[in-house]
Design brief:
With 324 residues, the protein is of the alpha/beta class. The chain has helices spanning 2-12, 25-31, 49-58, 62-67, 76-88, 102-110, 122-136, 147-163, 178-190, 206-212, 234-243, 252-264, 272-282, 304-317, and strands spanning 21-23, 34-38, 69-72, 92-96, 114-117, 139-140, 169-173, 195-201, 246-250, 292-296. The protein has a six-stranded mixed beta sheet with strand order 1-2-10-7-8-9, with helices on both faces. A four-stranded parallel beta sheet has the order 5-4-3-6, with helices on both faces. The longest helix has 17 residues, at 147-163. The radius of gyration is 19 Å and the shape is globular. The model has no long low-confidence stretch (mean pLDDT 93).
Length: 324
């Protein structure tokens, strides 16, 4: 599997930004750990999702490409598919739930994709996608439950550990599991002793429930919308069961605090999923023995209205502002 990620890296390299990994002195001082961050929020479309979508689409035959591709997504996966198709001159259809903010719809249209609105959530959108696949023969690009997508996401970890091989603990957000699967394959191959900790919001404990055979309840929403999924990929479950050392849940307000810390201390904007790893460190959910901690700022596409209200709540929590 590691060899396939190396191959994926060769295939997609020329289309990518090789995003930096750096030690964050401010966050290291705040947490009393050495915090190394992979700034994947600097990637095209502002997210790692582009890597997996591109690798999957490059794996298609010319005949399959002529038919066009289709994906269901309310966010970063959609833009990754749309941009990959723009570069490769392939027709892209994106099905988005009816509660998707117009800004996200607009970005895909600007990249040349045809956007259709269907369903109240991504699972309902997927049912419609499956109908269109049968009708028109499109190639479905799944956001996480696909080996080519997993391999594409894993290329991120090749870059990260090449820059800082001394990382002893990776704290990675998990939703459907594509990012964590790819990264865990690379990390465990290069260093079998590295600790891999999966992080989820308490509001969406899908992988946590699977990993520990629990039945925790779900909430309606999460600030970490990129990992707010109720279903972990079947392929990912097999990989993660073998590679992940533990899974932890973090509170929503701690994710908000982590977004604020990234912005105010590290001077970088990350979305909720990208801040979940830092939230786990701040909540002391990682082993005390961990010193060199790798975090992935996996996306930076945070809605400006969400950001403004989040920062206001943080100011109130810190008693820097009083609202009457």
């Amino acid at each position: 599997m590691f060899k396939n990620i190396l191959k994926a890296n060769q295939n997609i390299k020329k289309f990518l930004v090789e995003t930096p990994t750096r030690i964050s002195h401010g966050l290291s001082k705040m947490t009393n750990k050495n915090i190394f961050i992979k700034y994947e929020n600097f990637q095209h479309t502002g997210s790692f999702k582009y890597r997996g979508a591109l690798n999957k689409i490059l794996s298609l035959s010319l005949k399959q490409r002529k038919k066009g591709v289709i994906a269901m997504s309310a966010g970063n996966h959609a833009q990754g598919v749309s941009l990959a198709c723009k570069f490769l001159k392939i027709k892209a259809v994106i099905v988005m739930p009816n509660n998707t903010p117009f800004e996200k719809i607009r970005k895909n249209i600007e990249l040349g994709a045809k956007v259709e609105i269907f369903g109240n959530n991504v699972l309902e959108s997927e049912k419609y996608v499956n109908k269109l696949v049968k009708k028109y023969g499109y190639q479905k690009i799944h956001p996480f439950d696909d080996i080519n997508v997993i391999n594409g996401q894993g290329t991120l970890m090749l870059e990260m550990l090449e820059d800082f091989p001394q990382i002893d603990t990776l704290v990675v957000p998990v939703g459907g599991g594509g990012l964590l699967s790819g990264c865990s394959i690379v990390a465990k191959y290069l260093n079998k002793n590295i600790k891999i900790i999966a992080v989820q919001s308490e509001n969406f404990p899908s992988f946590y429930n699977y990993f520990y055979n629990k039945n925790n309840n779900y909430s309606k929403s999460s600030i970490a919308e990129g990992i707010a999924v109720k279903k972990v990929g079947a392929l990912n479950k097999k990989i993660l069961s073998k590679n992940v050392d533990r899974c932890v849940l973090v509170k929503e307000n701690k994710i908000e605090e982590a977004i604020s810390s990234f912005l105010m201390i590290d001077k970088t904007l990350v979305e909720g999923a990208g801040a979940a790893g830092l939230a786990a460190v701040v909540e002391n959910k990682i082993p005390k023995s961990s010193r060199n901690i790798g975090l992935i700022a996996c996306g930076g596409n945070l809605d400006s209205r969400v950001l403004s209200s989040l920062l206001m709540r943080e100011l109130v929590r810190n008693k820097k502002i009083l609202t009457l």
